[in-house]
Write a structure and sequence with these properties.
Chain lengths: 246, 254
């Protein structure tokens, strides 16, 4: 059962190299973005998320809305189990697949083949699993014999096609995305779009951060609007986008 | 168990990538590790052999095994400081067990040792020095040393991620430790009155002895074993406490 449950979650970043005093007095509350504060020792703290509570169950497609610095990326990282909140409890049940940076782990000096295994392992696949999907990945990425060449020789489009093809062979329970992935030229784009839509449909829970109204309205059935690291509005995608985009 | 297996497999793969990465596009590849070490041993062997007035038959086998085995200890510790810092991209995006990054460092250095260690029998062959049955003691010795290095990498990696001056400090300290530990010079040169505080209190001396003596037909002393094992046990206790208290903060520090 994939399920996400946040109770009173707060995330604070201690900034070790900031000059506490002058920075706090000047930027005590930034216009957009998280709040700056001081901890009891006088260190500067950036409060990225504050007292967040919500539940996400199976079948929900959640869009995250908010200005730059409102806490979307931090929230995605808490959902990835990367950041453990200092206050409150974030329980995330289910296998997580993050498509936030599909190029993570790709080594330009290694060949396409080596990179498929590297990236696949980072996504939690075993060697055999990757092996069985290898031909499919190569075919989908349309790299042909380039698969034996170092990735640094690829065009940026080829690089992305490879990263996309490997990253989308997994079967996610909880899928995390930062904006929709759009790769390649016109013909590839359609193919990629279909594959991504399939992946999103097969996921039990989707959480996607986006600034794109159409995307959220089309893909999501629920939206959460973040402001200053707090939930400003949580509800049906259509209602929240209407309020957010005005 | 599958999480552990998968994490170790990932660490192994990343470690091999690290080794290969440094030598991509070079003609002889990772053989450079072996070649540069061999040149270092030969050059230092001749020069210090003259300075210390020790016949090469004795000094070269000592120096070759010393430098090569020390390089495992020294470079694992230096790399350990960067274990989490260098893995920032992965740490901030994937929910991997913390030890993936530290085991990666230890395996990478073990692979490097594998490239270097072939020099030792060659040196013994060249000067005609025998290797005794004591070599089998290398196996438990290696395990104890790896157990020690493994916790040091975790602690140094964590402290370095939090305090960014630590890697530089450690690197400076390791240079000093290299000189005060009998790596280039033979421990027998220390007058027995000073041996206790100069050698006995230096944990790196005991670790090095566990690895080095088996090559030199010697048997590590009980003191070597007990102190090294004790160091591992105490070190791991401290490490596990530190991980329990601060492990979840690593992602915030890198």
């Amino acid at each position: 059962m994939a399920h996400i449950s946040f109770t009173g979650v707060s995330v604070e970043f201690p900034i070790f190299n900031a000059n506490g005093r002058s920075l706090t007095s000047r930027l005590l509350e930034v216009a957009t973005g998280g709040r700056l504060d001081k901890d009891p020792d006088g260190r500067v703290l950036v409060r990225a998320l504050q007292d967040m509570s919500f539940e996400i169950g199976e079948g929900e497609r959640v869009g995250l809305l908010g200005h730059n610095g409102a806490g979307k990326s931090t929230l995605l990282r808490v959902l990835s189990r990367v950041y453990h909140p200092q206050i409150g409890k974030a329980s995330i049940n289910g296998r997580i697949t993050s498509l936030i940076d599909i190029s993570l782990g790709i080594n330009p000096e290694a060949t396409g083949r080596e990179n498929i295994f590297l990236r696949g392992k980072l996504l939690g696949m075993s060697k055999d699993e990757i092996g069985s999907k290898f031909d499919d990945i190569v075919e989908f990425s349309e790299l042909g014999s380039f698969i034996e060449m170092p990735v640094r020789t690829y065009s940026s489009g080829m690089h992305l096609r490879l990263a996309f093809a490997v990253s989308t062979v997994v079967k996610p329970e909880i899928l995390l995305m930062d904006e929709w992935l759009s790769v390649g030229d016109e013909s590839f784009k359609q193919k990629a779009e279909d594959r991504l839509t399939n992946l999103v449909d097969s996921a039990k829970i989707l959480v996607i951060a986006s600034h794109n109204r159409e995307l959220i309205e089309k893909t999501c059935n629920r939206a959460i609007w973040l402001e200053h690291g707090q939930v400003k509005m949580d509800g049906l995608a259509s209602q929240v986008t209407a309020a957010y985009f005005g | 168990m599958t999480t552990l297996n998968r994490a170790i497999a990932l660490a192994k793969m990343l470690a091999w990538e690290d080794v290969k990465q440094a030598y991509r596009r070079s003609a002889i590849g990772p053989f450079w590790i072996t070649a540069s070490m061999a040149v270092q041993v030969a050059a230092m062997g001749v020069v210090f052999g003259i300075i210390f007035k020790t016949p090469l038959y004795d000094y070269l086998p000592f120096l070759a095994s010393s430098i090569i085995l020390w390089s495992l200890i020294g470079s694992t510790i230096n790399d350990g400081c960067m274990a989490f810092i260098n893995a920032e991209g992965m740490i901030k995006q994937l929910d991997l067990p913390f030890y993936v990054h530290t085991v990666r460092v230890v395996i990478k250095n073990a692979i490097t040792l594998g490239h270097n260690i072939v020099i030792i029998p060659l040196v013994f062959l060249v000067v005609g020095h025998p290797i005794g049955w004591q070599l089998v003691l290398l196996i438990p010795g290696f395990l104890v040393v790896v157990a020690n290095l493994s916790w040091m990498v975790v602690v140094l990696g964590m402290v370095s991620a939090r305090y960014r001056d630590v890697p530089q400090t450690v690197s400076a300290a390791m240079t000093i430790i290299y000189f005060i530990t009998p790596v280039m010079w033979q421990p027998t040169l220390v007058p027995s009155a000073q041996a206790h505080w100069l050698l006995g209190l230096n944990p790196f001396y005991h670790l090095l002895q566990l690895l080095r003596l088996p090559f030199l037909s010697g048997i590590p002393t009980v003191e070597n074993w007990v102190l090294s094992l004790g160091f591992a046990v105490v070190g791991w206790l401290v490490t596990l406490l530190a991980v329990r208290k601060f492990g979840k903060q690593i992602a915030y520090w890198v």
